[in-house]
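Notes from hallway chat w/ T.B., transcribed later so I don't forget. T.B. wanted the structure written out for a chain they're using in a teaching module, and asked if we could keep both sequence and structure tokens in one place. Agreed to drop them here.
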Amino acid sequence: MEVSQSIRRQAVWVVFIGAFLVLLPSAFAQEDAELRLTVRRTFGYRGGDAIQGRFSLEVEGPAELAQVTFVIDGETMARDLEPPFEHSFHTSEYPLGTHRLLAIGNLASGRELSSTERSFEFVSAEASRDAARRIVGPLLLSVLGLIALGVLAPALLIRKRGFRRREENSAGGRPEFVAGPDRIRRLIEESRFES
């Protein structure tokens, strides 16, 4: 009885592993068959899904991809018949607001593939400048603050540590400022002669 249960378990595992190995290549084939639509900024503003300016749509897909149609809000933007499959556009060519972008590809076999639909809000140039100012303003203030700190901190440290000590010059005239290597050399010479 125990032997037959063990054989059944092994048979179930063999069937499970066999089914997994049979279905695995088809899962990868479906992944390769997808179109990937990428939206790249050429020149302009992009803050999350808000865009303004010149952008490029690029599609990656299977090797047998014969043509790609770029679609905005259900209407054809452009059709590309050879790789690399891409289309350049300017947001000002379309009304402000939210738009849905999509790529539809045709394989040499006649099969049609579709990319995932992407939504973007086309904003005005003024809105993009305002958003850029909100980012650049604090960043510029931070950089200027760091520069000021870099200039003032050493001056304050020098004053606190007493590096501005003035020593009489050898001619007995007015005091001179001694710092850096000259000061170190003098301190060494003074300590040598005192002992």
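Follow-up for T.B.: Residues 1-33 form one domain. Might be a good example for the class.
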